[in-house]
C-alpha cells in the first residue's frame, strides 16, 4: 500500500461527506477507512482523541480532524475546478449551515432528544437557511449546480446537511417555494460525485482486538 493520507470516515455523516467530496474534487488519492461509530478504531482515537469523523492522517503524521480543514487541505493540494475561487463567500455560507441551521436541524430531526423542543418550530427556524440558499442559488448559479464547477464548494459544504433536512419530511420539503434548492438537491443526489462518495464500505477493523467500544 503506498504511503497515502488516511481518511477515517462514516458513510452517512454529513461532515465526512463534505470531506470526501472535496477530496474527490481535488483528485488527491487517499486510503479510506470506514468507521462504525460504536467501534472506533484505536488508531483513529490515537490520532484524534475527540472521536469524531472525519479525520485525515497525513503520511507525515499531521492530523486534520475538522471537516472544513480537510476540505481546505485537499483543495490547497489541487483545485482543478477552482473551488477556492469562492473560498471566502463559501465559508460564510458553510458557517451558517454549521451554526444555527445544524442546531435546528438536529432538533427538528430528533425533538425527543431535547427538552421543551417543538419540531415544527425547529423546522421553521432551520428553514431560514434553506430559504437563503434557495435565494442565493436563484441569483448566483443560473441553474449551474455542477460539482465540477467553481460553485461545487458550496454544494459540497452544505448539501449533505440540506439533504438531511429535506429527507426528514420529503412531502413538506417538496411543497416549499424553493425551486432552485429542490433542483440543486436533486442534481446533487443524481451526480456521479455523490454516488462515488456514497459508496458503501465494510467497517475497517471494526471488531479487531484493538477497537475501542464507546457508549453511544
Ligand atoms: N466539527 C466536526 C464535527 C464532526 C462530527 O460531529 N461527526 C459526527 C458524525 S456526523 C461524529 O463523529 N460523532 C461522534 C459519534 O457519534 O460518536 C467536523 O466538522 O468534522
Can I get a quick summary?
Helix content is 53%, strand content 9%. It has helices spanning 14-26, 42-47, 67-77, 87-109, 119-140, 152-168, 170-174, 179-190, 192-197, and strands at 6-9, 31-34, 39-41, 55-57, 63-64, 211-213.
How does this model look, in words?
The protein has 216 residues and is an alpha+beta fold. A four-stranded mixed beta sheet has the order 2-1-4-5. A two-stranded antiparallel sheet has the order 3-6. The chain has helices at residues 14-26, 42-47, 67-77, 87-109, 119-140, 152-168, 170-174, 179-190, 192-197, and strands spanning 6-9, 31-34, 39-41, 55-57, 63-64, 211-213. The radius of gyration is 18 Å and the shape is globular. The protein contains nine helices and six strands, in the order βαββαββαααααααβ. The structure holds glutathione. Glutathione is lined by residues 10, 13, 15, 37, 51-54, 66-68. Residues 10, 13, 15, 37, 51-54, 66-68 line the site of glutathione.
Average pLDDT taken over every residue: 92
CATH architecture of the largest domain: Up-down Bundle
Number of helices: 9
CATH top-level class of the largest domain: Mainly Alpha
Low-confidence segments, given as residue ranges, are: none
Succession of helices and strands = EHEEHEEHHHHHHHE
Report the portion of residues in β strands: 5-15%
Brief descriptors of the model:
216 residues; alpha+beta; Glutaredoxin; Glutathione S-transferase Yfyf (Class Pi), Chain A, domain 2; 2 domains; four-stranded mixed beta sheet; two-stranded antiparallel ribbon; 9 helices; 53% helix; binds glutathione
